């Protein structure tokens, strides 16, 4: 089979598209032939050695597995060849086939497009965990979402509405703001004069929950516009600038700055993670959430696709398609 291999930490141009041995089903493993492979911002950081974890070299990046089981070990009892599944693998996803432990997998209905399933796993999974477990977002609260046209921000807009919040989306261009409005945002604004815009749109009260994937100056604006007992969620730093917090603001406004590390959540709290996924799938079936698919790319062009995402030039969910693969759409 063919896969994308990182032989060193460095520029995305150095990723190799090459032949690797087919995985074998061992332990409680199942081998899944991929329909669509999710591309995520952390994948690009991982390849460059900029992520929180650094796997042993060489490695195949990619964390989202969506496809059909082609083989199962004798000890695997939950799935059989032909079953359609979705799973988080942490590594190994950028390949035509991938071996996963069956305990990481969940059944996937034939009616759900593979590209949508990839989005629900990580992008929507991160936003859901952030708003449900970390912020404990309540109905009627005001939620501000930075990077609202990207996958995780777009998800936060839809999930915020599903949870009953008033959502103010922030995006850099009119086209991206239009996308956020289509996702359900009550209002969509740009980054210019963000602090004053938030003050005006909340009547001086500030936002109850802020969802920040951007960092930099935008974080500083949020830090000054949090409501009493607010929760400022730190998701990531797409701007490339890790901000500093004037902690006196948290004191005088009595708000919390809350870190969101979804990868550790799914490792430490697998039962809560599984319950979250079930809720997301239920919302999807009910039409409350629906991912925006921003693009499909051949597996061989993974490096170029990652560049587009890391440059904040992509909207919605982008996926890789292996040769002969399809997204069931």
UniProtKB/TrEMBL annotation:
SMART domains linked to this entry: PKS_ER
InterPro entries named among the record's database cross-references: ADH-like_C, ADH-like_N, ER, GroES-like_sf, NAD(P)-bd_dom_sf, Zn-ADH-like_protein
Superkingdom of source: Bacteria
UniProt GO MF annotations: oxidoreductase activity
Record-annotated Enoyl reductase (ER) domain positions: 10-320
Database matches in PANTHER family: QUINONE OXIDOREDUCTASE-LIKE PROTEIN 2, SHORT-CHAIN DEHYDROGENASE/REDUCTASE
Protein name: NADPH:quinone oxidoreductase family protein
Native organism: Oricola cellulosilytica
